[in-house]
Write a structure and sequence with these properties.
This protein is mainly alpha-helical. The chain folds into two domains: about 80 residues, no CATH class; about 280 residues, Na+/H+ antiporter like fold (Up-down Bundle), CATH 1.20.1530.20. Helices cover about 75% and strands about 5% of the residues. The chain has a two-stranded antiparallel ribbon. The protein is globular. The C terminus is likely disordered.
Length: about 375
């Protein structure tokens, strides 16, 4: 009964939103659009196939609200909400550390070829594609620098989730994320100075310290916590994933509100560039790995590690540089888009598992 009412209400809200947009009453469509997206997120959580997209739809609802009513997501009284971004990122990275262990680094010894290939792909494909797209689309300098920044960032936990869903090489995924994150303080500033210094001034040491502060220190604390207090606080294990997802949503919402005018001016073009960037990461990550001889499960892992960047870190760096409303836009768009594409690709690959029999790979397609 209630499910039918919810479904009908969702259809009515969606239809009304489309009609208002078609009539050019864009401002009037705002509340209905937000309401519609919230309803969609609620409805699909009950569907076994599409439940994984619920979180992303919630983010779209929050982003839509911030585009229509940015004043509520910029300041509360005299408090600038942008000041929440770095602390939230540090909490998210601490949570990432609690979910990791020193075993995640053992893959460097057990799977050296996969790690080397993955890291090389990580820090070459996405920065170069981002650089090409930034100049191809002729974005304003700071927007262009933001695209390169996304490409120069390491992968995040989202890639591990997709590797798990798709039955890829999860052990390699965890190792690549850990190693890429540790290398980020050196590689990300270096790549930004190499590829984006003509767009915005890049201070190598300042960016290195920002990454150490936002990522490395919280992860190290998380690793220490995991080593000495694992299992002692079960409520924390349950809470951290929820806190991390909520934190990412808040960060994206704040950045969208701060850069609303720039996003509305170049929105569709930026979305297109982000989609190409993300898709290119999957494509070149997978086929580049296959070209050098990695098995299919490992190649799928590298595809996720390359295509799914740590957009939250890129947002934090943009804030530290004082350019969150411009450089921060590409990461804000990239985050939700990569979750949609990553979930779709993981689901598709899960229906096409790969079994390894000695050295011969056998594809088994479910009928």
């Amino acid at each position: 009964m209630w499910n039918k009412i919810l479904f009908i209400t969702t259809l009515l809200a969606g239809t009304a939103s489309v009609i208002l947009l078609f009539l050019g009453r864009i401002e009037d469509a705002g509340p209905l659009l937000v309401f519609f997206l919230i309803l969609v997120a609620t409805v699909i959580r009950k569907h076994p196939v599409f439940a994984g997209f619920g979180y992303t739809i919630w983010i779209f609802a929050a982003v839509t609200a911030s585009l229509y009513y940015p004043q509520y997501f910029i300041k509360i009284g005299n408090f600038d909400l942008k000041q929440l971004i770095v602390p939230l990122l540090m909490i998210i990275m601490f949570g990432m550390g609690t979910a990791m262990s020193l075993k995640d680094f053992q893959g460097v010894i057990k799977m050296p070829k996969g790690v080397v290939v993955g890291i090389v792909c990580q820090f070459t494909i996405m920065p170069c594609v981002g650089f090409g797209l930034a100049y191809l689309f002729k974005f304003p300098p700071e927007i262009a620098a933001g695209i390169i920044l996304v490409g120069s960032s390491p992968s995040g936990l989202a890639s591990n989730v997709m590797a798990f869903i798709s039955d890829a090489n999860l052990a390699l995924s965890l190792t690549l994320t850990a190693v890429a994150t540790l290398l980020a303080p050196l590689f990300t500033p270096f790549l930004m100075q190499l590829l984006a210094d003509e767009l915005v001034p890049i201070n190598f040491l300042a960016m290195l310290w920002s990454i150490v502060k936002i990522v490395i220190l919280p992860i190290v604390l998380g690793l220490i916590f995991n080593r000495f207090a694992h299992g002692r606080f079960p409520w924390l294990d349950k809470a951290m994933p929820i806190v991390s997802m909520a934190g990412i949503a808040v960060i994206i919402t704040i950045i969208t509100a701060a850069g609303r005018d720039s996003l509305l001016a170049i929105g569709l073009t930026l979305v297109l560039a982000v989609i190409i960037h993300n898709t290119a990461g999957y494509f070149f990550g997978y086929w580049g790995s296959r070209l050098v001889g990695l098995d299919q499960r490992s190649a799928r892992t590298v595809a996720f590690e390359v295509g799914m960047q740590n957009a939250g870190l890129a947002s934090g760096i943009a804030l530290e540089m004082g350019r969150v409303a411009t450089m921060g836009l590409a990461p804000a768009v990239f985050g939700p888009m990569m979750n949609i594409s990553g979930s779709s690709l993981a689901t598709w690959w899960r229906g096409r598992p790969v079994e390894t029999n000695n050295k011969r790979e056998i594809k088994i397609y479910k009928k």
